[in-house]
């Protein structure tokens, strides 16, 4: 094992479900919120995407929600917290000379927030591959191939963890030893820590 590639959200950064929060705080039921979230995320995770707020604005008008651009980002991102057990595990791996990478479907505004609030990302990982920078949204095979190619890695020398079965299946199909993320204890067991 030369490198470990991790998904980010749900692994190193955890939060309550945004759909649950919108139902609780704004009365928007999940069956209305989730299709809107999917539509918004399909746009904002790409390079040159419109702003997160502008994509949400039509829904906010329909739902009579008054959230400005900064208010939306604070409401959403401030609920996210660091998974301290996973950060400690990454420290151990880095100390053993294992190369570490993040491969994440993510958006520009969130990336800017993470740069300020989650410094461990720049301290522990050689590079964070965000879809809004690369243009490849997992499970697009090119997202995984980019990490391998840019870093001179063979798939067989890498281990990958993600909380999406579909993403794990694609990485596995490339020859990367891939596992569904179920928590730090299982990651430790897989990696022999």
What CATH calls the topology of the largest domain is Rossmann fold
Instruction: Supply the number of structural domains.
Output: 2
Structural class: alpha/beta
- Put simply, the count of helices is 11
Q: Overall 3D geometry?
A: globular
Portion of residues in beta strands equals 5-15%
Radius of gyration: 17 Å
CATH architecture of the largest domain: 3-Layer(aba) Sandwich
CATH superfamily annotation of the largest domain: HAD superfamily/HAD-like
Estimate the helix proportion, in percent: 40-55%
Spatial separation of the terminal alpha carbons: 13 Å
Mean pLDDT: 97
Quick one: biggest sheet?
Answer: 5 strands, parallel
Which descriptors apply to this entry?
single chain; 11 helices; two-stranded antiparallel ribbon; 193 residues; alpha/beta
Structural features, described:
The protein is α/β, with parallel strands linked by helices. It has 2 domains: 3-14 and 81-191, 3-Layer(aba) Sandwich (Rossmann fold), CATH 3.40.50; 18-77, no CATH class. The chain contains 11 helices and 7 strands. Strands 5-4-1-6-7 form a 5-stranded parallel β-sheet, sandwiched between helices. Helix 10 (165-173) links the parallel strand 6 (158-162) and strand 7. Helix 1 (18-26) crosses helix 2 and helix 2 runs antiparallel to helix 3 (52-63). The protein is globular, with a radius of gyration of 17 Å. The protein starts with a strand and ends with a helix. The model has no long low-confidence stretch (mean pLDDT 97).
């Amino acid at each position: 094992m030369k490198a470990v590639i991790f998904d980010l959200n749900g692994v190193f950064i955890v939060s309550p479900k945004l759909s649950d929060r919108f139902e609780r705080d704004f009365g928007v039921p999940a069956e209305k919120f989730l299709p809107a979230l999917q539509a918004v995320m399909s746009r904002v995770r790409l390079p040159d995407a419109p702003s997160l707020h502008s994509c949400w604005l039509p829904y906010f008008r329909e739902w009579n929600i008054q959230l400005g651009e900064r208010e939306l980002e604070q409401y959403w991102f401030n609920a996210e917290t660091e998974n301290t057990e996973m950060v400690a595990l990454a420290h151990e791996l880095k100390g053993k000379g294992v190369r570490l990478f993040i491969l994440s479907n993510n958006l520009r505004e969130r990336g800017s927030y993470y740069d300020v609030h989650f410094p461990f990302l720049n301290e522990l990982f050689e590079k964070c591959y965000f879809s809004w920078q690369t243009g490849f949204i997992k499970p697009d095979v090119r997202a995984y191939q980019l990490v391998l190619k840019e870093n001179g890695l063979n798939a067989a020398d890498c281990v990958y963890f993600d909380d999406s079965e579909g993403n794990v299946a694609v990485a596995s199909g490339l020859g990367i030893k891939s596992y569904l993320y179920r928590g730090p204890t299982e990651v430790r067991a897989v990696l022999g820590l």
